[in-house]
Specification:
Largest sheet: 8 strands, mixed
Helix content: 40-55%
Radius of gyration: 31 Å
Oligomer: single chain
Order of helices and strands: HHHEEHHHHHHEEEHEHEHEEEHH
Distance between the termini: 58 Å
Number of strands: 10
Structural class: alpha/beta
Number of helices: 14
Strand order of the largest sheet: 3-4-6-5-7-8-9-10
Length: 544
């Protein structure tokens, strides 16, 4: 593996200069070869010696042709490599500049150290400042490590290409593209993408969109472009599978009794219905398809944003709960989230300085009723689905920060079981600024501090008639936890009340207004419940 200092010493312009020089020499050699004929020895000399001389001259001419072709191959190879090297070096310089501006030092081994001994911030902001700097230090180290790995792959591939004329001209570029990280951190994924040349990026989007569409840490516009291609390809694949399965059932006199074709056909049609829901949602306009995953044997998973996640100053991520599916609920959730986005936007100053994007995140297997109650991985009475979901939500949230130069104000909204999934992710440490739990059956922790959020940035809403919100099925009732801010869900100032378990984001409700204030980073203006509900009060007394 090449060392960081080796990469620092690279200069892509020197490669281009060397290529230019070799191209000049190739042109000179080509002129010599073209002007040299086999008639150097005149007809006045005959015999074995003359024949040997003519053969030797033909050999020299052939060698000239071979040398000319090899010179052109090496010059072209170096010229193409200089483009990939320039992109890689630009990415490295950007990381090191980010480190310098944030007052971090980068050692020759790629280690990153914080040069700030003390923080000139308000006492209330010390914790969040320390958290953010720790995360930034880790991100910088991961980005540098990924770039060194890419530099090593580039260097090895270039050495092989120069030594072996049989390798294709695209060998080096293909080796760099092939270094798409596997199960890497969002910061590493971001570094990988930033180090690719424009041609390499286009090739990946067009030829291998399935490899990058769900890659956390890449820009939202890139993921959207790739996933839309995957969406079209998946529809073709599933249509073909549907036709084949239907024919298999028609040709079988026993139908689907002794084969799995009927179950396969049902699942295929459900997946097609999910694609229909996604396409219908995207057709609303101003949408980004951030996730499309059909790899599970169960439900299709997806995440769709309203607005531009790459540029929004405020980004909200909504995590739904029990019974939610892409084919059954995406369009409804998207409508709710668009309404929330617009409500939050109206709370911001007019002008382009601040704007909002909101994501409906359905990238986990939410618990279902029916036979799923017997499956601990999908049962609503188990926390396993939340734990599995948090493993997918954490990198998604980290990726929203890693894909951008400036971090947005990031809020997470969890409804019902989705609040448990979100809380499980927050306990892993994220860059989230605010968390709203709507109708939560529990956060899986007895203390708000475990969520690793700044004090005063955890909010809970419990509507009248929502029995789920008082269950405390996963730890204590969130409304009874110390350190939370309990939102009012009653009607006030022209806003209506939220009733029951599914009314929190309904239009013109106090609950949606309060949630929009959090998304807009104006939580201090929210309408607060002044008195705890009866069950919350009893739990406070019980656990005090």
């Amino acid at each position: 593996m090449v060392a960081l200092d080796d990469v620092r010493s690279w200069d892509s312009s020197s490669l281009m200069a060397a290529s230019d020089d070799l191209m000049r020499r190739w042109r000179e050699l080509a002129v010599v070869h073209a002007s040299w004929t086999d008639e150097v020895v005149a007809d006045g000399w005959v015999g074995p010696a003359a024949d040997a001389a003519r053969e030797a001259i033909r050999g020299v001419r052939s060698d000239l042709r071979g040398a000319s072709a090899e010179l052109l191959r090496v010059a072209t190879c170096i010229a193409e490599a200089s483009i990939d090297m320039a992109s890689l070096l630009a990415a490295l310089h950007a990381v090191e500049q980010d480190a310098t501006e944030a007052r971090f030092g980068v050692g020759s081994d790629g280690s990153v150290t914080d040069s700030v001994a003390s923080y000139s911030v308000a006492l209330a902001d010390v914790w969040s400042t320390m958290r953010d700097r720790h995360r930034l230090r880790e991100e910088l180290a991961e980005r540098i490590s990924q770039l060194v790995r890419m530099a090593t792959a580039f260097d090895d591939a270039l050495a092989r290409r120069l030594a072996d004329a049989k390798l294709p001209a695209t060998f080096v570029a293909s080796a760099v593209v092939a270094s798409v990280p596997r199960e890497a951190t969002p910061a590493a994924n971001s570094a990988f993408w930033s180090a690719l040349s424009p041609a390499a990026r286009t090739r990946l989007i067009v030829e291998q969109p399935e490899r990058i569409g769900n890659l956390d840490g890449l820009p939202a516009r890139v993921r959207d472009s790739a996933n839309r291609r995957v969406l079209a390809a998946e529809r073709l694949r599933l249509r073909a599978a549907e036709t084949e399965l239907r024919k298999e059932l028609e040709d079988n006199v026993f139908g689907g009794i002794f084969i799995d074709a009927d179950a396969g056909l049902q699942q295929t049609r459900m997946r097609l219905a999910s694609l229909d829901a996604i396409e219908s949602t995207l057709a609303q306009g101003a949408r980004q398809l951030l996730v499309l995953d059909n790899s599970s044997y169960e439900e299709t998973m997806a995440a769709v944003a309203v607005g531009d996640v790459d540029t929004a100053t405020h980004v909200a991520v909504f995590v739904p709960g029990l019974g939610s599916t892409v084919h059954g609920d995406l369009e409804r959730y998207d409508g709710d989230i668009e309404g929330l986005k617009l409500a939050a936007q109206q709370l911001l100053p007019r002008g382009p300085a601040e704007n909002v994007a909101a994501v409906t995140w359905m990238n986990y297997q939410a618990p279902q009723l029916g036979w799923n109650l017997l499956d601990p991985d999908r049962s609503v009475v188990s926390g396993l689905a939340a734990q599995a979901g948090s493993g997918r939500l954490v990198p998604f949230l980290d990726g929203l920060d890693a894909a951008r130069i400036d971090d947005p104000h990031l809020s997470v909204l969890g409804h019902s079981y989705g609040s448990l999934t979100a809380a499980s992710a927050l306990q892993e440490g994220t860059g989230v600024d605010d968390f709203v739990a709507l109708g939560s059956p529990g956060l899986g922790t007895p203390t708000v501090a475990d969520l690793e959020l700044p004090a005063g940035h955890v909010f809970v809403a419990e509507a009248t008639g929502d029995v789920v919100a008082d269950l405390g099925a996963f730890g204590r009732d969130p409304g009874a936890l110390d350190g939370i801010t309990l939102f009012s869900t009653d009607g006030s100032d022209g806003q209506s009340s939220s009733i029951g378990h599914n009314d929190y984001l309904a239009e013109a409700t106090t609950s949606r207004y309060n949630t929009a204030l959090v998304v807009a980073d104006r939580s201090e203006d929210a309408v607060i419940r002044t008195r705890p509900a009866l069950f919350d009060l009893l739990q406070k007394i019980l656990y005090s």
